[in-house]
C-alpha cells in the first residue's frame, strides 16, 4: 500500500468504532468514488479544528469566547444544569421547561477507560458553580452506571462546598441516555428533580 494511503487509513482508524478493515474501505471509497467528498471532509475538519473550542463558562463547543446560551441575558443565572454532552443539553432545551444555564462535562467518569475527574473538567465546573450567582446545581447526567457514579461524585464535591444540588427525577428509565429519551419524560424529570 502507498505511504499516503497507509497514513489516511491510520487517520480514519482514530474514529470511534472504526477498525482496520472499515478504515481501509473508507479510504478506498473516498479515493475511488468521492474525491470531492474527500476534499470537503479535509477542509471541514481543518476548519472545525482551528475554529471550534470550549466555551469559557459552560465548556460546550463554540466559536466564540463565550457561547450563545451563556451570553443570553434571558437565562436564569441561579440555576446550573450539568450534562454529559452537547446532545444532552439540546434534549433538555427541547423540553422548554428549563431556563437556567449549563455546564457540559464532555464525558463521564469511567475509571475502566481511564477517565477521571480531571478529564471531565470538574475544576472548571467547581469555579463555575461557585460564582456567587448559582444557587442550585441540577445533575442531569445519564441514568447509566457511569452517569449515576458521575452524579454522585459531583454531588459530594459540590455539597462539600455548601452548594445546593439536585438530580433529575426518575422517569428517565434505568440505563437511560437522555439523548434517546422523549422530551416529555425529560421535562417531567426536570420538574420533579429532587435534592441529593
Ligand atoms: Zn457557554
From TrEMBL:
Q: Which Pfam families match?
A: RecR_C (PF21175), RecR_HhH (PF21176), RecR_ZnF (PF02132), Toprim_4 (PF13662)
Zn finger intervals (C4-type): 55-70
Query: Its domain of life?
Result: Bacteria
Quick check: keyword rRNA-binding in the entry? no
Q: So where does this one cross the membrane?
A: none
Q: Where is the Toprim domain?
A: 78-173
Tell me which InterPro entries the record gives. Answer: DNA_Rcmb_RecR, Rcmb_RecR, Rcmb_RecR_Znf, TOPRIM_dom, TOPRIM_RecR
CDD domains attached to this UniProt entry: TOPRIM_recR
Stored Gene3D superfamilies: 3.40.1360.10, 6.10.250.240, RecR Domain 1
Q: What UniProt keywords are attached to this protein's entry? A: DNA damage, DNA recombination, DNA repair, Metal-binding, Zinc, Zinc-finger
Q: What is stated as this protein's family in its record?
A: Belongs to the RecR family.
The protein's role, per its UniProt record = May play a role in DNA repair. It seems to be involved in an RecBC-independent recombinational process of DNA repair. It may act with RecF and RecO.
Report the protein name in the record: Recombination protein RecR
What species is this protein from?
Pseudoduganella danionis
User: Could you tell me the gene encoding this protein?
Assistant: recR
Amino acid at each position: 500500500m502507498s505511504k499516503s494511503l497507509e497514513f489516511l487509513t491510520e487517520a480514519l482508524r482514530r474514529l470511534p468504532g472504526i477498525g482496520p478493515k472499515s478504515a481501509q474501505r473508507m479510504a478506498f471509497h473516498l479515493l475511488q468514488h468521492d474525491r470531492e467528498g474527500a476534499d470537503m471532509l479535509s477542509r471541514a475538519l481543518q476548519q472545525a479544528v482551528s475554529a471550534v473550542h470550549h466555551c469559557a463558562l459552560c465548556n460546550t463547543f463554540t466559536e466564540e469566547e463565550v457561547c450563545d446560551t451563556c451570553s443570553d441575558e434571558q437565562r436564569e443565572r441561579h440555576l446550573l444544569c450539568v450534562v454529559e454532552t452537547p446532545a444532552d443539553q439540546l434534549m433538555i432545551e427541547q423540553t422548554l421547561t428549563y431556563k437556567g444555564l449549563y455546564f457540559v462535562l464532555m464525558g463521564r467518569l469511567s475509571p475502566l477507560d481511564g477517565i477521571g475527574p480531571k478529564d471531565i473538567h470538574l475544576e472548571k465546573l467547581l469555579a463555575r458553580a461557585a460564582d456567587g450567582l448559582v444557587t442550585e446545581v441540577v445533575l442531569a447526567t445519564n441514568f447509566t452506571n457511569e452517569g449515576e457514579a458521575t452524579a454522585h461524585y459531583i454531588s459530594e464535591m459540590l455539597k462539600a462546598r455548601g452548594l445546593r444540588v439536585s438530580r433529575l427525577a426518575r422517569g428517565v428509565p434505568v440505563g437511560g441516555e437522555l439523548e434517546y429519551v422523549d422530551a416529555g419524560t425529560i421535562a417531567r424529570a426536570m420538574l420533579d428533580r429532587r435534592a441529593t
